[in-house]
Amino acid sequence: MTREAARSPGVARPPLFSRAFVLLWIAAFGFFTAGNTVLPVSSRFAAGPLGADSAGVGIAIGVFSVAALALRPVVGWASDRFGRRPLLILGGSLTVAALVLHLFVTTLPMFIVARAIFGVGDAFFFVSAVPYLSLDESRFGPYWPSRGWLLLHITTGMIALFTGPIQIWLGLSDRSARYSDSGDSV
Asked: Domain 31-180: which CATH class?
């Protein structure tokens, strides 16, 4: 359906809350919640139990962004060549693997590797999700780029940003909460 046809009176618009939207919303919410749960305690964890100096803390925290930004052009090319869905799944899987690895970190180099894998997962997930959502009018309808992307971004990113620290404070993210209070290891 073209934009012109969708704007015509009497033409039914495809629903915004399609199966694809709901599944992608759940995946994005989980992704952003996980990232926002780990972020507030990562620097304290590196400085406390891992004994990193300020440079070590900076490297451990910064490697996520460097990995995510460095891989985005490669992932963009790969998503055009191999499709977005497999790369979304790979990004989500890498993110889960990195978060699980965070639970078993005992040294600063291991923490840096976990953060780097988390950044790679971010690159795959984010770069694949944006065009998957915004360019595919056949899946989400002609109004998707304006309404859907805004709704997805606000509800997943902002709610996750808000709830991550609350989960730590309430003890729902137990392992992270232990590090945020005193910096002591478990």
From this structure: mainly alpha
